[in-house]
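Researcher: We're teaching a course module on how sequence relates to structure. For the next exercise, students receive a sequence and then see the predicted structure as tokens, so they can try to spot secondary structure elements on their own. Here is the exercise chain.
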Amino acid sequence: MTGKLLIFSAPSGAGKSTIVKALMQRVNGLEFSVSATNRSPREGEVAGKDYHFLSTPAFREKIKKSDFVEWEEVYPGRYYGTLKSEIENRLNAGVHVVFDIDVVGGLNIKKMFGDRALSFFIAPPDLKTLEQRLVDRGTEDESSLQTRLSKAVEEMGYQHQFDCIIVNDVLENAIDETVQRVEDFLGK
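Model: And here is the predicted structure for the students to work with:
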């Protein structure tokens, strides 16, 4: 049996990572794909678990070598990507791989893997709620907050290209709906 892919994308602050963590706890047989980035680790993040933290020159070298399934310059000078080595062996071993990835990267992976992948867009109830979540997170200065909100408006325009749209208004309901859709897709 070959594995399947579960792709999760959302604007920053929509609750995607929280939903993915809950999914990983509730559904057996899933493994998380660790993305690569050239940004510095946030407090509490662990290299190789949360991200593969690369220098900008190292990231660019991997782009040149075609070591990524997908990569994107999500913000100016800020790269994210999925290393081929992160998924090839897992799929062949029958493992279901979960991606917590930017919108464009998510759509690119869906295009590449077609029916072997189920794509989710986690949407905030509205932009005001999203802004408050970003402020409450305490990781953004005013400039980065405005950059993320502007990017969120752009990303929301892609949501209908995903297989499933989950509105994260009540977190537990969003988690329950996500788990149900994943179990249906995996035949559990």
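Model: If you want an answer key for the exercise: The chain has a mean pLDDT of 91. The chain has one domain: 5-186.
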